[in-house]
Design brief:
Elements (H helix, E strand, L loop, with lengths): L1 E3 L1 H8 L3 H17 L1 H9 L7 H27 L23 H4 L9 H12 L26 E3 H18 L28 H16 L14 H10 L1 E5 L7 E7 L24 H23 L6 H20 L29
Antiparallel strand pairs: 1-2, 3-4
Length: 362
């Protein structure tokens, strides 16, 4: 994923852990910002249908939640405090993601479709080089020799520089690692190689590696270290209609030739692109349901904020709300849209999922 190079330059100029706080906060915002469009696609799949496509999208969402948690713990480990429960934390859709991802890629909230997966999901997750033929790795990159362009770099490069900067700062002035508020939530993230306390430079670099490996794979292999396709290639399975599998002896040694992945568009709830609560007529069931959904989403953010700021047990509440959101989404989408501008709903679309910040459920 290409990002604005200003963030790489800020990392290069950082001299203290405090200089890293706003950049790691931005990483937390990025890991979260992908979740609403992915959840919107997942939630619009009618329950009991499209199980393969749903499993793929859900698996990516779970890993984005892991990356969000790792980035939050990293900020805590450095002595900062994640800011999650604020209106500015929630992206505006349609709009850009944090870091000006993808050369100002405009991200939309839309129902699940091949076009949405290909044009938005894959664009968000696109690695700096889509793999054609794997080649042997050449060891760690020489970051000092990299010429960063004036406008755009890559999110992978950002994380490489972040890891390198943490090493440099710790070598010159040993970092006092803070572990008291970190939330490893082992009941939700059960793999100790993916979620762990960040109590050293090595642990911080390992956490960054998990984020990059699962998101982009490596430069030579579309699979992560657990043998699962990286996010870009996982979404491509939906577009290609086949699972990605190894094919030893071929060039490249893998292909989209596994079990079918079929997206039945007849089993996808219909809704307007980029819905907003204000689009629905006040006082109607449509408006109330749209508000209820965003209010529940805001409750999840509030619980996550508390969970990563000392109230660790709130992670259970946050995860519970996240699971409830899918059932609530089905009710919202089944509610016929009634528009505030008086226009008719001839297409029979359901009320949309807007993922807005709503503090009070009116």
């Amino acid at each position: 994923m290409r990002i604005a190079s200003e963030y790489i330059h800020q990392l290069r100029a950082a001299a203290t852990v405090e200089d890293l706080y706003p950049l790691v906060q931005k990483a937390i915002e990025l890991e979260h910002a992908t979740i609403p469009p992915y959840l919107c696609g997942y939630f619009t799949l009618k329950i009991g249908s499209n199980e393969d496509a749903g499993q793929i999208i859900r698996s990516v969402v779970i890993e984005e939640m892991l990356h969000f948690s790792l980035a939050s713990n990293l900020l805590l480990a450095l002595g900062g405090s994640p800011q999650i429960d604020t209106p500015d934390f929630v992206p505006k859709y349609p709009g850009e993601l944090p870091f000006k991802i993808g050369d100002h890629l405009e991200v939309h909230l839309r129902k699940c479709s091949i076009a949405q997966v290909q044009d938005v999901f894959m664009a968000i997750e696109k690695p700096d080089a889509v793999i054609d033929i794997p080649t042997a790795t050449a060891g760690r990159m020489n970051l000092a020799a990299i010429d960063v362009p004036d406008e755009f770099a890559t999110i992978g490069l950002f994380y490489e520089f972040l890891a390198q900067k943490i090493r440099e700062i710790d070598a010159s002035t040993p970092i006092a690692w803070h572990t008291d508020k970190q939330n490893v939530a082992s009941q939700w993230f059960t793999d100790p190689d993916e979620m762990f306390l960040i109590d050293s430079t090595d642990a911080a670099v390992k956490a960054i590696g998990v984020i990059v490996d699962q998101g982009e794979g490596t430069h030579t292999d579309p699979f992560d270290t657990d043998g699962v396709p990286a996010h870009y290639y996982r979404f491509e399975e939906i577009v290609r209609g086949r699972r990605l599998i190894p094919k030893p002896g071929a060039v490249p040694p893998y292909e989209f030739g596994g079990l079918p992945v079929y997206l039945d568009t007849a089993q996808v709830w219909d809704m307007d692109d980029d819905p907003a609560i204000a689009k629905y007529a006040a006082g109607t069931v449509s408006h109330r349901m749209a508000t209820q959904f965003s209010y529940s989403y805001t409750r999840a953010l509030n619980a996550l904020h508390l969970a990563f700021n000392g109230e660790k047990a709130q992670i259970d509440h946050a995860m519970g709300v996240m699971y409830e959101l899918r059932l609530l989404a089905q009710q919202v989408l089944a509610t016929p849209a009634v528009y505030a501008d008086g226009s008719s709903n001839d297409a029979g679309k359901g009320t949309g999922l807007s993922f807005e910040y709503v503090e009070v459920n009116e």
